[in-house]
Design a protein that fits this description.
The structure holds two protein chains of two kinds. Chain A is mainly beta. Chain A has no helices and eleven strands. In chain A, β9 and β10 form a beta hairpin. In chain B, the strands form two sheets. In chain B, strands 2, 4, 5, 9, 10 and 11 form a six-stranded mixed beta sheet that branches. The N and C termini of chain B lie far apart (41 Å).
């Protein structure tokens, strides 16, 4: 059973460009979470999604950032007009489903290291 | 919302000694408490978890205790080894709902050979 997949693993963008980060959850998982981590810092929650639904986006900046988890395909975190402060590691996690579909244990992907020049 | 505090932020121990990391949470509805280990440049990995219907859980050299009344839980690592050096994150959530997981700020553990 493949784990959580993220691509690309490293992404370099110039200021003003767009960054698209992809996350494929573990097979059978329907909950996806995105986190941002700066060097030597903790995991900052950004957004929690289920298939075709945003459950909680309280940690995501209102401007330039968006996320989706379509019925088919991976979850996408999109950052428009990137700035140097967006440089960070972005981790995706997916969680197991309990009976009834609610979320349980989270498993993390390897992360995408975004560098903005 | 839930708030998780974690202490200490850094911890140095001699190889073979024990290490204890403590967390407190604020939401009495939280019922699931996982711990993650993150090595430098790697993803956070689940090492142990505990649910609110038990007070203690062990897995080899790692144990977690939970005090629901006081709303705190702890990670205990015995006979520490250099490969235990990493950042450890505690977390709390309500499992069975549609709530995000709230993480602590992390503890950087250094095991000195």
């Amino acid at each position: 059973n493949a784990g959580v997949m993220q691509n690309p693993r490293h992404l370099v963008r110039r200021r003003g460009q767009e960054a698209r980060l992809r996350c494929s959850p573990m097979k059978g998982h329907s909950h996806v979470y995105w986190y941002r981590q700066l060097p030597e810092e903790g995991l900052k929650f950004m957004v929690y999604l289920q298939k075709e639904n945003i459950i909680d986006e309280s940690g995501m900046p209102k401007e330039r950032f968006s996320a989706e988890f379509p019925k088919e395909g991976p979850s996408i975190l999109r950052i428009q007009q990137v700035v140097r402060g967006d440089s960070a590691a972005y981790f995706c996690a997916s969680s197991t489903n309990l009976a009834g579909g609610a979320a349980d244990t989270q498993y993390f992907g390897p992360g995408t290291r975004l560098t903005v020049l | 919302g839930e708030n998780v505090e974690q202490h200490p932020s850094t911890l140095s121990v001699q190889e073979g000694d024990s290490a204890v990391i403590k967390c407190t949470y604020s939401d009495s509805a939280s019922n699931y408490f996982p711990w993650y280990k993150q090595e430098l440049g790697k993803r956070p990995q689940l090492i142990i978890d505990i649910r609110s219907n038990v007070g203690e859980k062990k897995d080899q050299r790692i144990a977690v205790t939970l005090n629901k009344t006081a709303k705190h839980f702890s990670l205990h690592i015995t006979e520490t080894q250099p490969e235990d050096s990493a950042v450890y994150f505690c977390a709390a959530t309500f499992s069975g709902g549609y709530q995000k997981v709230t993480f602590g700020t992390g503890t950087k553990l250094q095991v000195i050979p």
